[in-house]
Design goal:
It is a single chain. It is globular and about 35 Å long. Strand 4, helix 4 and strand 5 form a beta-alpha-beta unit. By secondary structure, it is an alpha/beta fold. The two termini are 13 Å apart. The longest helix is centred in the N-terminal third of the chain and has 12 residues. It has a five-stranded parallel beta sheet with strand order 2-1-3-4-5, sandwiched between helices. It has a single domain, classed as Response regulator (Rossmann fold, 3-Layer(aba) Sandwich), CATH 3.40.50.2300. Keywords: Phosphoprotein. It comes from Desulfonauticus submarinus. This is Two-component system, chemotaxis family, response regulator CheY.
Length: 123
């Protein structure tokens, strides 16, 4: 089985590195992006991306706009997206899920829970 490729989109370098480290240990290939625009560029240039982990609060393009843009494209309709955000309010969770995110996790998320959710979404 080919190595699954995960895109981590977060404006915090610390969070990107931590999430990448956690996921990489599980044998996944990782790409990172610092905001939604960077995330779209990485997504379009890596056709093998299997799942996205993204934040909502980011400069240039936030996570909500990023999710909406990804979901508007036929080829990414079924690409699993996990939101990992400090925003734990119901309105943010509903908005992200309404735009097409598969899961919403509030930071700090337990590493094993994040990995379990990634594996679940990847089947």
């Amino acid at each position: 089985m080919a190595q699954k490729h995960i895109l981590v989109v977060d404006d915090s370098k610390t969070v990107r590195n931590l999430v990448a480290f956690i996921i990489k240990k599980e044998g996944f290939k990782i790409s990172t992006a610092e905001d939604g625009l960077d995330g779209l560029e990485k997504l379009y240039s890596n056709p093998d991306i299997s799942l996205i982990v993204c934040d909502v609060n980011m400069p240039r393009m936030d996570g909500f706009t990023f999710i909406k843009t990804v979901r508007e494209q036929e080829m990414y309709r079924d690409l699993p997206i996990i939101v990992l955000s400090t925003e734990g309010q119901e309105k943010d969770i509903h908005k992200a899920l309404g735009l097409g995110a598969n899961l919403y996790m509030v930071k700090p998320a337990q590493p094993e829970k994040l990995v379990r959710n990634i594996k679940m979404l990847l089947g």
